[in-house]
Amino acid sequence: MASPTISSLRTDEIFTHLLIQRGRKPVVDNHDAGRKERLRQYGEVNETHRVKHCQEIFLPSTDRNDIPKSILLTGKAGIGKTLFSQKMMRDWADDKLFQAQTNPRF
Amino acid sequence: MNLLRDDRVTLRELLNRSSVLNEHSNIDESLFEYIVNHSEEVLIVMDGFDESSQQDYIASDLDEQYPNNVQEQMPVAALCAKLIKGRILAGSIVMITSRPDESDRMNRIHFDRFVEITGFSEQQVKEYIGKYFQENESMKNTVLDHITRNEELLSFAHIPVLCFLMCSYMEYMLKESVSTDALSAKTSDLYFEVLNRFVLEHNKKAIPSEVTLDKLSELAAQLLLEKRFLFVEEDMKKFSLEEVESLRASGLLHCGPPFRKFFSEVTKHFCFTHLTLQEYLAARWFVKKKEIPSTHTVSSMVMQFMSGILSKEKENVFMNKLLEALPSSNGSKDIRLISAKCLTEYEDKEFAKFIIKKQHRRYSDGQGGLQFDMLTDVDCIAVSFLLDTFSASNEEEAGKKHQTFAEETFIVKSLRIKFSKLTQSGVRRICNSLEKDFCAVTELELSSCLLNDECADCIKGLVSSKLTELILNGEQITDAGVASLSKALQSSICQLTSLNLNSNQITDAGVVSLSQALQSSACQVTSLNLWANEITDAGVVSLSQALQSSACQVTSLNLRGNQISDAGVVSLSQALQSSACQVTSLDLSVLKSDH
């Protein structure tokens, strides 16, 4: 399998984890919230919905035993979807995503 | 995928066009066979689904007209549809990325899982900045300080690309300027540059025109005046369909998940990608219309942005009106600081001089005092600008042949900053302004600002020359800081008479260096306050010695709240009895034992 070029080294160095959650983050207007509170909410995510490790995306959920075959990953412009999926692919290929999974291919 | 359009390809041909592969790797027959037979080991990522022109096709059932055969040739869109629906390579995992608005078009396709990337947390922003500047420690610290101490920028940075653009812009600014300590980036300039690049780079379809941006700015302003941050499609009726498309793709707007408005109507909320983005666009509109929004409705950030935008147009009259419109009480932040920030964004020094004279009551109290509470390092940029304006004004007066006495009330003589969170970068900025030739400030107070020895070191230049009074109350200064200040007290041009180091972490070693300074003939300190430190008898002994020196001019001494016992008191009494000692007022309350 071809490995991406030099840019992948840079990606590794600069890659910083992101906040990911299951389902969509609600867009609400908390009318009572002051400006400080509003500003802070951008960098926060509901703990119950939070995805703590990337591999959770591919693991079966508690109510279903089978793994998800189709996944929709959304996010605002510039939030890092492309970079994230590239990293997922590399981790999948390098077998870094899971401890127990067998060898991958693309 | 868009390049292939309606071409008919086989699955193997399509996979071979993946951007992950290069000319040296190819999926040949045997590898393809493996893939087909072991599809559960395959992860397929379709990135940027929203940019595909075939979305509607894929979401429909049109692919059903083609057989579910991996060797079959069919339009690209059909292949994709079959992959997503699991009709070919059934065991594989398919992940699709999309922007929120677009992803809702696919509600007819079943997805096993939905995941949203919400961006960086505040901690992750810091981490990213650390990694971006890993080669340059000094730049890293400057940028880290600047962004993390500015709640607007910290929040704005939750979008990684914006965080990157900010780092990139600040890196450029720091390289252009002389030192890596001072980042004089105006917030409005930062927004202007970062937004331009963001819109240009992220807009795959069409860049919103100036006209569209104006309409968007108008919408932003309208909503802000109504204190609304969410809107729906109906609010965009002034926009044409193409404009709406270009805006959705621009990254300026964000939308939430669809929800049921009525039984038969599903709708969704839109908002701007970030609150400050809405404020910036609104500011743009207000400036265009020469309208000043009520400051009770909009935040002071809007006024700052307006000032920044105005600076490119040099509209003194309007700027004057804006400053006058700022109310005398505006929430937690002082009117003086907001005005200073607006003046800083407007950048015009001549105009600033004119304003401080005209509205002098706002900029200093009747006795030539300037006080600020709850400052951060970033606020110091504005304070510094204000101080420089006063200095420039003084210089102008000095140059005039005739002096009018009324001008004297505008001279700022004392600066007090309390209950703030400052580091060396903020303190240094202020000291630089205070050190200017025509700066008339001789009394400086920095209380409860979390200052450490490094900060005390920045002040030593002022101590050795200009200041008559220095208060560093409730800080985190240790003996090292005191040593540095003591040295400054021995300078031949030192004019300091009152030194207050109340509630720090000074021990006997610090007192020893002070005592040394007090015995120098250059030192003019008459009032010394060391209340609530960690001084013991040993320190008092060295102090007592100093008090008996003929050079020592101390008349008032406060050693309250230290750890002094009888022995210490004894040495002090001895000193007091000496003829050279000039102490008339002594405060020693709260001792370990009675005396």
Tell me about the largest β-sheet of chain B: 8 strands, parallel
Shape of chain A: globular
Identify the most extensive interface between protein chains.
Answer: A-B, 60 and 83 residues
Q: So how many helices of chain B? A: 25
**What class, by secondary structure content of chain B?**
alpha/beta
Question: Could you walk me through the main structural features you see in this protein, from its secondary elements to its overall organization?
Answer:
The complex is a heterodimer of chains A (106) and B (595). Chain A has 106 residues and is an alpha+beta fold. Chain A is 26% helix and 8% strand. Chain A is built from three helices and two strands. The longest helix of chain A is centred in the C-terminal third of the chain and has 13 residues. Chain A is globular. Chain B is of the alpha/beta class and 595 residues long. Chain B is built from 25 helices and 17 strands. In chain B, the strands form five sheets. An eight-stranded parallel β-sheet of chain B has the order 10-11-12-13-14-15-16-17, with no helix packed on it. Chain B has a two-stranded antiparallel ribbon with strand order 1-3. In chain B, helix 13 packs across helix 14 and helix 20 runs parallel beside helix 21. The N and C termini of chain B lie far apart (91 Å). The C terminus of chain B is likely disordered. Chains A and B meet through strand 1, helix 2, strand 2 and helix 3 of A and helix 2, strand 4, strand 5, helix 6 and helix 8 of B.
